[in-house]
Structure formats: C-alpha cells, structure tokens
Amino acid sequence: MILFNVNHILLFLFCSQTVFGFTYLSKDGVELQYSTKFKRECRGEMDIIVTLESIALPECVMECGMRPDCEALSYMKFFKKCNLYSSDGHESDRIKGSCVEIRVADIIVKRKPCPECTSGQRCNPAKGKCEITECPVKDLEYGIVSGNIRTVGNRMQFTCNDGNTIIDEIECLSDGIWNITDNQCSTDVTNVAIGGRTYMSSVYHGYNGSMGVDGNSNQLWSGRSCFHTNSDLHSWWRVDLGKIYRCFRVVLYNRLDNRLGERASDLDLMFGTTEDNMYIVRQVDGQIEDIHTFNFPESKEARYVQVMLRRQQYLHLCEVQVFGFA
Q1: Counting CB atoms within 10 angstroms of each CB, which of 12, 218, 268, 304 has the fewest?
Q2: What is the per-residue pLDDT across 286-306, written as a single tens digit (0 to 9) for each?
Q3: In this structure, what are the phi and psi dihedrals at residue 100, rounded to the nearest 5 degrees?
Q4: Are residues 214 and 294 in the same domain?
C-alpha cells in the first residue's frame, strides 16, 4: 500500500479503481489513517446516519471515525457532500454520480481525545467528550421514520405500522430520542373530536350536533345518535376540537335506514385553525360512502372541522371522528 500525505492531489482517486492510503491529523488532535476507493456510482439513502455538507474528505473520514454507529461513508468531491452510513453493504442501492467510499474497517484512529463513545454518540474532539448528535437509524417498533437526516433538532415524518396513520414533523430530541410514542399510532385512542363543542346551521326536532361526537356510531335513526339539520341552503355542522391538532384522518358515519343516506351528497369537508379561516380540504361529488374516510398523509392543522352540503338539503350524520395529535 502506498502512503500519501493528505495534501497530495486527490485527482488520481477519480481516475481509477486503485486503493490509496492517507494520514490525517486534525487541529483538535485526532490522528487517523484511512484508505479510499473510487466508485463510479454512489450509495443511495439506505441506512444513512447523517449527511454533512461543505466539508473536506479528511473531515468526513474523521466524522465517521468519531461515531461508533458509523460503518461506512461516501464522499462526493464535487459537492463536498459527506454521507455516513450504519452499514457497509447495500450494493443494490446505487445512484448516478462518482464518489469516494470508505468502510470503517479501512479507518485506523491512532489518536482520539475522547473515551470510547457508546452507540448514538459522537466524540467531540474540541471538548474531549462524547455527545449525542443524532437519533438512531433503527426504526421504532410501532412505525418507520421517513427520511435520513436525523440530527438533533431536525424534524421528520413518521409512518405508523397500520399503513394509514402518518404523523408529520416528529423531532429528534437532544437526548437522541424521537418524540413519538405508540399511543400516537393507535387510532382507537386518538379520536380528538369526542365530546367537542358543536355548532349547526339549524337543529331539527332536538337532534343536536353533540350527537355526532358522542362516541356512538350507530347508523340507524332508531339509535337516537344522529344529528339533523333543517333543509337549509348549504346545511352545515361543525365541531370545535378545543385546540389546534395535526389531523390525519376524518371518518363520517352516514345514515343507513330508509335510503335517507343519499341526502349526504355533494359534500365539502372543511378545516380551520379559527372559525374565520375555514377552507375546503376534501370534496365529494354525489353520495358519500356508508362509512366515508378522508385520509391526509401529510396531516393538516385544524381546530375546527366542518361538514357542509353544496345545495339545499337536510344534513344528518351519525358520527364524525377526527384522528390527530396536538
């Protein structure tokens, strides 16, 4: 193996598949040796721990050497972009673009001003101690973190195991833990509309709006759990959730008796953070389904949820469920 000083020109790396060796001594006292290999296709996003921008190759190598969880890195010289990975495999995950790749087995840290760091930590040479800088790549048992930039303070998307519920903007906290719990993925405990204050365009014979958020989804009129307006122009019903929620699903339970479910036709679903800024989030042309579900994969902020008809007709539904989190 031929040894070069790090100041030698790296152009040769991008002209062959030859392995080269280098020595690097940082201003913080880190000394390491590493060998590089040029690749004509770079690794993709699978198993990325963190992406670092605008740094030199030796600094990228040092960043990997300072993290127990780092198993490999790729470096795109043109963009000065450094990707750190939790594995050294996944040859099938390749993208166009040349880069240098280094496995942790090809990095020898000869001097490091920190004790051995534990998983999820990084040696901070300037302070001489281990710190948490990112949340783990390993996905949680009740869902999957969507994306790979997992540094502390960053916000990501989280997809729950049920395949529908998507929670937006979970945060990587300073202790390296995602601010997400399994309760936020359980749709049976996240109906935030139950017991909310309701409003209607009018009330037909005492069948008031609270019957739509009483937790009783009996779809027969005889169950006495359906709200009912008069035959108004643009009949509407609204629930106040009490505070702003990130809403990812709304479910409407239509009447099933006497074929009167057809009245719930040409319907608008509206959200608003205040009563003065209601806006349409979904529209249904024709009759809604017996149990009609609106999903919002990116989730939407709302305190008020409203159902309104686009014509003159009675509006009656037997339950309105809103799933979300504060």
Answers
A1: 12
A2: 999 999 999 887 778 999 999
A3: -100, 135
A4: yes
